[in-house]
Specification:
This protein is of the alpha+beta class and 292 residues long. Helix content is 14%, strand content 29%. The strands form six sheets. Strands 7-10-15-12-13 form a five-stranded mixed β-sheet, with no helix packed on it. Strands 8-18-11-14 form a four-stranded antiparallel β-sheet, with no helix packed on it. It has a three-stranded antiparallel β-sheet with strand order 1-2-9, with no helix packed on it. Helix 1 packs antiparallel against helix 2 and helix 3 packs across helix 5.
Length: 292
C-alpha cells in the first residue's frame, strides 16, 4: 500500500504515491546485489511470527507467502533485477513531450499528480490524478479536438493551457473535460479554439488515485484541428448562447437551457449535431467537426 501526501500552494497541488518495487529489500530503488545478499542471509524457514507480505516483518524476503525463503523467492529477486520502475518522463510540466495531430499511444502508470487545481472542471479536489504533460503546436486556426474517448479502460481527465512555458498557471487555463457524453468508461473529449503556430500544454490524468482504485494505464490520445471553425457554439465557454445567430436560435429553440442558464456540454453536442450545414435554419457554425 502506498504512502500518500497532499501539499497545497496557492493554486498548485502535488500528490505522490509510493511506486511498488518488489524485491527491493534495502529500499534503494534498485534490485541488486545487496538485496540478493539479504535474501540469502534469510534463507530457510521464517521465524515466528511469520507475516507474509509485510515488509516490516521478520521475513520480508518471503515473497510468495509460504513462510520460507527459498528458490521461488530467489527467482523473484533475479526476475526483478535492475532499477525500480519510475514515473513517466513527462510526469512534470517541465518534462512535457511534444505531440502532433493524430494518435499518440501512452501509459500513465506510476505518474504523480501535480499542477494547478481547477474546481470548475469536476475533478476530485480540482485535480486530474496521476497526470502527464504534452505540448502541441496548433496546425490550424480553428477548433482543436483532444480525445481519449473510448480509447482507455480507465476514467480520464483533460486540461488545456495556453503557452508551453512551465509551471502551468490558472491564468493559462483554456479548457477541460472530465467525461464526455457517449464516451465509454468516463473517457474524455476536449474542445477549444486555437491559433495556427501557437503552442499549448495538454494535461492528461485520471479521476481516482486511491490505493485501491487508481485511474492510470495505457491510453490513446487523439488530436485534430479543424481549420476555420472558431465559433464558440462548438466548444465550452462562459455564459449563455453562442456567437452564431442561426445556430444559437436553433439550439435554444430545442433546448432553452442553453440560452437561459449555460452553454454546456449538452448544448455543444446539439450544436455539433445540427449546426453542421445539413439542417437548414441551424446554419453551419460546426460544419466539419466530427467525432473523435
Amino acid at each position: 500500500m502506498g504512502v500518500w501526501c497532499l501539499v497545497f500552494g496557492t493554486s498548485t497541488a502535488v500528490l505522490a504515491g509510493e511506486i511498488p518495487c518488489p524485491g527491493n529489500l534495502d529500499e534503494d530503488a534498485i534490485v541488486g546485489a545487496f538485496d540478493l545478499a539479504l535474501l540469502l542471509g534469510a534463507w530457510g524457514q521464517c521465524p515466528d511470527p511469520c507475516s507474509p507480505g509485510d515488509p516490516d516483518a521478520t521475513c520480508a524476503a518471503d515473497f510468495n507467502g509460504d513462510c520460507t525463503v527459498g528458490a521461488f523467492d530467489l527467482a523473484f529477486v533475479l526476475g526483478a533485477w535492475g532499477p525500480c520502475p519510475g514515473p513517466p518522463v513527462n510526469d512534470l510540466c517541465e518534462g512535457a513531450i511534444e505531440i502532433f495531430d493524430g494518435d499518440t499511444d501512452f501509459d500513465t502508470t506510476y505518474a504523480n499528480t501535480g499542477g494547478p487545481t481547477h474546481p470548475g472542471c469536476g475533478f476530485v479536489l480540482g485535480l486530474p490524478r496521476q497526470d502527464v504533460w504534452f505540448t502541441y503546436t496548433a496546425s490550424c486556426t480553428g477548433l482543436l479536438q483532444v480525445c481519449t474517448c473510448n480509447q482507455a479502460f480507465w476514467d480520464t481527465n483533460l486540461v488545456l493551457y495556453e503557452g508551453c512555458d512551465c509551471p502551468a498557471s490558472d491564468e493559462q487555463f483554456l479548457a477541460c473535460n472530465e467525461d464526455w457524453e457517449g464516451c465509454l468508461l468516463f473517457t474524455s473529449r476536449m474542445l477549444a479554439a486555437v491559433e495556427a503556430g501557437a503552442c499549448y500544454k495538454i494535461r492528461l490524468g485520471g479521476f481516482l488515485d486511491t490505493p485501491d482504485d487508481i485511474d492510470e494505464g495505457p491510453v490513446t490520445l487523439t488530436l485534430s484541428c479543424v481549420e476555420g471553425q472558431n465559433s464558440n457554439c462548438c466548444f465550452p465557454h462562459p455564459g449563455t448562447g453562442c456567437d452564431d445567430q442561426a445556430c444559437e436560435d436553433f439550439i435554444c429553440g430545442i433546448d432553452p437551457w442553453c440560452c437561459e442558464f449555460d452553454w454546456d456540454d449538452t448544448c455543444i453536442i446539439e450544436a455539433h449535431t445540427f449546426c453542421d450545414g445539413d439542417h437548414g435554419d441551424a446554419g453551419s457554425a460546426c460544419e466539419g467537426v466530427g467525432g473523435c
